[in-house]
Specification:
Elements (H helix, E strand, L loop, with lengths): L1 E7 L2 E2 L32 E4 L9 E13 L4 E13 L7 H7 L2 E2 L2 E2 L173 H9 L5
Antiparallel strand pairs: 1-2, 1-4, 3-5, 4-5, 6-7
């Protein structure tokens, strides 16, 4: 059976100290006969079916037998295995592997304007990655670590980023229409003019996010945390903000027409010139908002 092994150089990337140097396949050069790689001594080794979820910068196709146990949905423990071939940019056809072996620079990976439409990058470890203007329509990024990555002007239409770490991510001018970010973390994210129309941000954490002129038309933000966030001139028309926390947030000049604000928290929220016409509000909130300079 086949699986992948991800290494940091010639060593394990999962905290192990084993050096695989003597077991790696030799490069094929000239007319030299290919030497079949050796099986490793019987023990306990970890392979993966999802290389994007591993640290490391080298990916190898491996043959194995005698599974000890599947430890997660994407990692398996085996008694022995052997390396068959290293995956390189010349023979790589799997985007999950490409994201591990693509060249690095001082700012992380650079995949400016790349096409990742529909790819499965779930559980990926891709912090500090440059996805500016990339096409990630329908991409699966569930439970991924994308800390401080750059998605400026990227297209994430119907992408799934549920449960992902998007803290300090740059989503300026990005398209996230109909995307799913349920239970994701967007603390201190840059959401300048980001389009979240009809997106699902259920229970998402947007604390201290900056979203001037962001668009949340028809979006679902039920139980979301917007504490200390700045959404001046943002558009929340028809959005669902039931049980959302907007404590210390700024929604000055924002549009909340026809929004559902049932049980939303507005403690110390800046609402000057915010438009709440036809929004679902308590009578008490209506009077308080009008007194604070909002349009009700």
């Amino acid at each position: 059976m086949l699986a992948y092994k991800v290494l940091c150089g010639t060593e394990a990337c999962n905290g192990g100290r084993f050096n695989y140097k003597d077991y790696l396949p030799l490069p094929k050069t000239g007319w030299k006969k290919w030497i079949k790689p050796k099986w490793l001594p019987v023990g306990k080794y970890f392979l993966t079916l999802e290389p994007q979820a591993q640290f490391g910068n080298r990916v190898f196709l491996c043959e194995y037998y005698d599974v000890i146990q599947p430890t997660t949905d994407y990692t398996i423990a085996v008694k022995t295995f052997r390396f068959l071939e290293e995956i390189s940019l010349n023979n790589c056809i799997d985007p999950r592997i490409f994201v591990k072996i693509a060249p690095f620079n001082i700012n992380g990976n650079r995949w400016f304007n790349m096409d990742f439409c529909g790819v499965n990058l779930s559980h990926a470890l891709l912090p500090f990655t440059d996805f500016a203007e990339a096409n990630l329509n329908w991409a699966n990024l569930i439970n991924s670590n994308l800390f401080r990555s750059d998605f400026t002007k990227a297209n994430l239409y119907k992408a799934d980023l549920s449960y992902s770490n998007l803290s300090q991510v740059d989503f300026r001018y990005a398209n996230l229409m109909d995307s799913t970010l349920a239970d994701s973390t967007l603390v201190n994210a840059n959401l300048l003019s980001t389009d979240f129309t009809n997106a699902n941000l259920r229970a998402a954490n947007l604390e201290a996010a900056k979203g001037y002129k962001a668009k949340f038309v028809g979006a679902y933000l039920g139980s979301a945390n917007l504490r200390g966030a700045e959404f001046r001139s943002a558009d929340f028309s028809h959005a669902n903000l039931r049980n959302a926390n907007l404590e210390n947030a700024c929604i000055q000049d924002a549009i909340l027409v026809n929004a559902d604000l049932t049980n939303a928290i507005f403690k110390n929220t800046v609402i000057i010139n915010a438009d709440f016409r036809n929004a679902i509000l308590t009578e008490r909130d209506m009077h308080a908002f009008k007194k604070a300079g909002a349009i009700v």
